[in-house]
Hints:
This protein is α/β, with parallel strands linked by helices. It is built from 28 helices and 34 strands. Helix 10 runs antiparallel to helix 11 and helix 21 runs parallel beside helix 23. The N terminus is likely disordered.
Amino acid sequence: MRSSAMTADYKSTVFLPTTAFPMKAGLADKEPEILARWERLDLYARLRDAARGRDKFVLHDGPPYANGHLHNGHALNKILKDVITRSQQMMGKDSNYVPGWDCHGLPIEWKIEERYRAKGQNKDDVDVVAFRRECRAFAEEWIAIQREEFKRLGIVGDWKTPYTTMAYAAEARIVRELGKFLMNGGLYKGAKPVLWSVVEKTALADAEVEYQDHTSTTIWVRFPVVTPAQPALAGASVVIWTTTPWTMPGNRAVAYGAGLSYAVVKVTAVAEGALARVGETLVVGEDLLADVLAHAKISGHEVSATLPGTALAGTVCAHPWRGRGYDYDVPLLAGDFVTADQGTGFVHIAPGHGEDDYFLGRAHGIQPPDTVDGDGLYMAHVPLFAGQHVFKVAPAVLAAMTEAGALLAHGSLTHSYPHSWRSKAPLIFRNTPQWFISMETNDLRAKALQAIEDTRWVPPRGRNRIGAMIESRPDWCVSRQRAWGVPIALFVNKKTGEPLRDPAVIERIAQAFEAEGADAWYTEDPRRFLGPDYDPADFEPVRDIVEVWFDSGCTHAFVLEAREDLKWPADLYLEGSDQHRGWFHTSLLESCGTRGRAPYDAVLTHGFLLDEKGDKFSKSKGNAESPQKVVSTLGADILRLWVVSSDYTNDIRFGPEILKQTTETYRRLRNTLRFLLGALEGFDESERVTDVASMPELERWVLHHLAGLDEQVRACCQSFSFHELFQALNTFCTLDLSAFYLDVRKDVLYCDGPTSPTRRACRTVIDLVFNRLVTWLAPFICFTAEEAWLTRFPSETDSVHLQLFPETPAGWRDEALATRWAQVRGLRRVVTGALERARADKVLGASVQAHPVVYASAERLAACAGLDMAELCITSGLSLVDSAQTPAPEGAHTLEDVTDVAVVVQVAEGDKCQRCWKILPDVGTHAHPGTCGRCDSVLTQASA
């Protein structure tokens, strides 16, 4: 390389990118300004106007609970919904998002009760209507806070008129929906065991239950046989094992496994401290005998008989506390739930304290006794234990069993046990009168299972999960013994105990609720609802409330059906995977029970959030950062980018390092947009090249790639595969644009003249790339896309979010060209690697100082024919050599995956052009000092 004899400053003649779009985003400060702009534009209303007449796409919002600041799980959920809503809108749908809130129920009621407890007051002493008004005010306060927090995330929706389950019209519709079950016979009152919180004093739904480790006292207890079905059982005792000693006062039977084998054992020796007695006879499951003998410290025994389970039918035992107030027979009954996995092969049956127990007892005409009240205390009529608490009674039970000579052994066991997810207190199964919706009446179970088959589940495994739940679930308990909620607004005949089934009464109640709210149930005279045909003295109004899962299960009725801007059924329900047993579940049952099908065509579930170590988030661990903190420091677009770059179908990790990586990804995307904007400075329609066929191959290759991306964008938006789509867009920006196309075309953009056909084609393609890329990214990084769009198209009234994804001409597709350019790019990768190696070896500095010699196969050379390979490889020259005729020298640079290319880097000959910096032989031979022919021509045209 020779030094140029003359130097000149041509910097001002180079077309360097110019843009007002800054490299530093400053999202935390800029996003609120963009939000304010959307408010001024009333963007939501503009979107609805723009979409009027289009096909609707409705994502129905699962209502979050109005009782606290948002957490990052809320952010994940709402951002994902917003991405779907925006993408469907930009694909040409009327995609209206109406947010909503769950407002009734225990969490809010609990908060208000805490206020009273802090003052030393009892909530039950407060007027129920006054208490309910406090609950309503609490929910209203948090709705206002959460609304602003959601809006700050960039969520577009009908924030002015969202739905709430406590709206008067919603409460009225809930009454009407429950009335449908009343009228079709699906709703009934029954007494059966339900999961009960003795702390919250109410029944709980499955979705309100979490399982935690709990240590229980275990007991092995003798049940003396009084009526043996087989001679071998005479004088024996059946041994049961239980982890719930508190249920023993409710015992009414013992279950055995008909398919199991049982041993009749005579005790011949015992160890010190044993409660077993030498000479007694015990009956135990044969497969569990060794375990029972060990726990009972029985050191010697004889098996006097073995019996099949079927031989036990007809055997009757005495309760262990016979003579102490428990003087009833305890029959042995076959139960298909009895196994030989643990225990003794016998299960004690308390029909009031277990589901299996209840159904087995009912099948044999055994009524569940009432033994425990709502506070967890034994009722006054319960012998030995009246007034004692079930969670504190174990020592007393052991003492009573020991005194009766019934206790064989005892111990403790740590096992998974149901707890309330609110109070964290353990639960009990308690027999109590409740209102149920039958799973069999009107074939509700069958309809729900068919609806599951007819629904699209994303990911598909959701179908099996909810299907298994519906197949095995018991009747739906819809009543709660609380104050804050929609009343079960029914009247029960005092004589018959039957609910009054009269649609006119239901409608009068609903109309009152619609006008005045559900408080009317507590303030109005029953005559108003019963009308002239019924005597209020004959009827008792129900004071239970409807469980909140029925409330939210009805949202399809009072939101989708009630609003003209929506439709029923919804195209999509979207929530966390826990809602297979929650909102998806109850919405399915409510809709199938009243309309015969699901209220949705598709259901999408996302996973739970984990910290960077894979642990669940919790305040106690200090790993639960709020979205407000992230938004106020990094910006909402960083959170949004994290959502779409994550595979949300599985559990998702979140934390500082992940946010750091996301921020770096965002920076690269932003810089791509910035370069595109800078390269388009001054571009207008007069410069556009409309004849694609006349463009250089490189530009046509980019258009081909855009056509493929357009197809992928639309397919991924339809399949909600945003992780896949983000990866494709990010790869396009990083590898195809920044590292290849834009890198190659910088020379043309900066140094060619304004009328250069290549430069015009390049700027035309960059314009087409920008318009697509910024709209494709708009659902993802909504603030940044808006900023970039307005930088390119300044407007007081426009928004990128009012655009549709641009249509892509089919003629841009060119598979033959793509195949050829795959060969070209393969060769280029080897050259680029050789240049990097040469720079590392200090052979040269910039790539334009090089003139590589490339040895390649004839097929590869044919692909490169007619192309300026020096331009594509960003060198000042490049020689192509047929490797079949002249093999590459030893030491030439190669790549393992491109076996037919080898490169030797040589230094370019000539002088450095003072304008484009290429090293060319003709530099210094033109009118403008120190320039090459191309640059001299551009300067001459500029001065003409």
